C-alpha cells in the first residue's frame, strides 16, 4: 500500500495500537460477572457479549446495551456515581476502576506492527490522530510511550465536552480529521471493532482499514471495512 496517497491516518487505540482491548475485556468481565452473580438468575457474561454489545462503544453505552440484551433495567445515575452504585454510570465507573488498576499494575506495550506503522508515518510527516471511545486514551498512550506522535486525541472526554456522538456514529472521526485540517475523503480510518468500522464507513473517509484481533474478517467486511489485515505492518508492504 502506498501510504502517501492519503493525507492523514485516524487510529482507534484499544486493539489497534495497544493490546488494551484485552485489558478492557478483562475489566468488563470482572465487573459484569460480579454484578450478574448478585442477581442470581443470569448466565455469566462472555466474550461473545463483549463483541456483540460493548466493543468500541462509549462506556455507559456498553453498559446500557449489554443490560438491555439481558432484559435488565437500571437507573441511569450520574457520571460521578461511585463504582459501588447499582446504576448505569456506577457500573461503568466500576469497570473503569478495574481497567486503571490493571494498567497501573501491568503497564502496556504497543503492538510492534502498529508502532512500526506510526513511526513510518511520522518519518513521512503524515499527520495522525487517535480516535477512541475510551476516556483513558491519553494515559494509555503515555504508558505506551507513543503520546509524542499524536497531536490530536479525540477520546471519550473530548466527545463529551463537544457533544459528539460515539461510535458507530462517525462524528469523532470527522472531528479528528477536521482538527488535522484534512478532508474526510483524504483520511484513512483504522479500527478493530465493528462499531468503529461502521463509524468509518459512515463518515465518507478515503479508506476504512480493519485489523482483525479476533472479530473475524467477514464481520469486519460486513460492517464496512474495505481492507482487513492481521497486523498493521502489512500496510507497509
UniProtKB/TrEMBL annotation:
Keyword Acyltransferase: no
MF annotations from Gene Ontology: beta-phosphoglucomutase activity; hydrolase activity; metal ion binding
Annotated signal sequence range: none
Keyword presence, Cell membrane: no
InterPro entries xref list: B-phosphoglucomutase_hydrolase (IPR010976), Beta-PGM-like (IPR051600), HAD-like_sf (IPR036412), HAD-SF_hydro_IA (IPR006439), HAD_sf (IPR023214), PGP-like_dom2 (IPR023198)
Keywords: Carbohydrate metabolism, Hydrolase, Isomerase, Magnesium, Metal-binding, Phosphoprotein
Essential cofactor(s): Mg(2+)
Principal EC category: isomerase
Catalytic activity: beta-D-glucose 1-phosphate = beta-D-glucose 6-phosphate
Enzyme Commission designation: 5.4.2.6
Any one Pfam family match given in the protein's UniProt record, by short name: Hydrolase
Similarity comment text for this entry: Belongs to the HAD-like hydrolase superfamily. CbbY/CbbZ/Gph/YieH family.
UniProt xrefs under NCBIfam families: HAD-SF-IA-v3 (TIGR01509), PGMB-YQAB-SF (TIGR02009)
Protein's UniProt name: Beta-phosphoglucomutase
Species name: Arachnia propionica
Amino acid at each position: 500500500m502506498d501510504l502517501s496517497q492519503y493525507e492523514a491516518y485516524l487510529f482507534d487505540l484499544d486493539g489497534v495500537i495497544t493490546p488494551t482491548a484485552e485489558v478492557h475485556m478483562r475489566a468488563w468481565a470482572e465487573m459484569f460477572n460480579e454484578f450478574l452473580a448478585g442477581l442470581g438468575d443470569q448466565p455469566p457474561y462472555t466474550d461473545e457479549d463483549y463483541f456483540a454489545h460493548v466493543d468500541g462503544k462509549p462506556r455507559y453505552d456498553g453498559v446500557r446495551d449489554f443490560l438491555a440484551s439481558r432484559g435488565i433495567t437500571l437507573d441511569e445515575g450520574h457520571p460521578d456515581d461511585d463504582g459501588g452504585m447499582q446504576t448505569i454510570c456506577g457500573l461503568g465507573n466500576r469497570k473503569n476502576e478495574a481497567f486503571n488498576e490493571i494498567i497501573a499494575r501491568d503497564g502496556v506495550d504497543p503492538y510492534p506492527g502498529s508502532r512500526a506503522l506510526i513511526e513510518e508515518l511520522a518519518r513521512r510527516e503524515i499527520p495522525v490522530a487517535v480516535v477512541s471511545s475510551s476516556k483513558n486514551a491519553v494515559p494509555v498512550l503515555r504508558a505506551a510511550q507513543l503520546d509524542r506522535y499524536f497531536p490530536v486525541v479525540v477520546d471519550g472526554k473530548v466527545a463529551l465536552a463537544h457533544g459528539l456522538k460515539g461510535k458507530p456514529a462517525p462524528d469523532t472521526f470527522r472531528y479528528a480529521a477536521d482538527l488535522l485540517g484534512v478532508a474526510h475523503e483524504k483520511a484513512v480510518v483504522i479500527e478493530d471493532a465493528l462499531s468503529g468500522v461502521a463509524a468509518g464507513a459512515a463518515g465518507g473517509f478515503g479508506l476504512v482499514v480493519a485489523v482483525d484481533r479476533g472479530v473475524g474478517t467477514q464481520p469486519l467486511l460486513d460492517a464496512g471495512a474495505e481492507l482487513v489485515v492481521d497486523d498493521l505492518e502489512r500496510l507497509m508492504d
